[in-house]
Amino acid sequence: MAREIDPEAIQEYKTLIQEQLDHLDTIIPRLKKGEVLGRLPAFGQLDASAGARTNYETFHSTTWDNLQNLRVSLSGMMETLQDSADQSDESDDAVIADMNSYESELGG
């Protein structure tokens, strides 16, 4: 049985992914050094301050890496969906050409 690709479903999913990418594009700049979420809080001079600072730096770095990886993954999904849609269109065109060829052979 042949698989069918629904172009409307692909477009809806691409729209959803693009919305997520757009949202990430508003968050990621805020985490850059010097921006609102990119500044290290003042932890003070207490004994626990060094540990808190290290934990915060690790958390910030991990969050940054995860957001960047998510962005790459979502971009890859967009490319894959577009490739699937393009291949589906090419396949449909080939089937139409084959059907027209068969019809002309049968009729003539």
Class based on secondary structure composition and strand pairing: mainly alpha
Helix content range: over 70%
Largest sheet: none
How far apart, in Å, are the first and last alpha carbons? 30 Å
Number of contiguous helices = 2
Q: What is the subunit arrangement here? A: single chain
| Low-confidence parts | none
| Global shape | rod-shaped
What value does the average pLDDT take? 86
Organism: Glycomyces sambucus
Protein name: PE family protein
Textual characterization of the structure:
- This protein has one domain (7-107).
- 76% of the residues lie in helices and 0% in strands.
- The protein is built from two helices and no strands.
- The longest helix is centred in the C-terminal third of the chain and has 61 residues, at 47-107.
- It comes from Glycomyces sambucus.
Topology:
Elements: H1 7-27, H2 47-107
Helix pairs in contact: 1-2
Q: Which key phrases capture this entry?
A:
108 residues; mainly alpha; 2 helices; 76% helix; 0% strand; rod-shaped
Task: Put the structure in a nutshell.
By secondary structure, the chain is mainly alpha-helical.
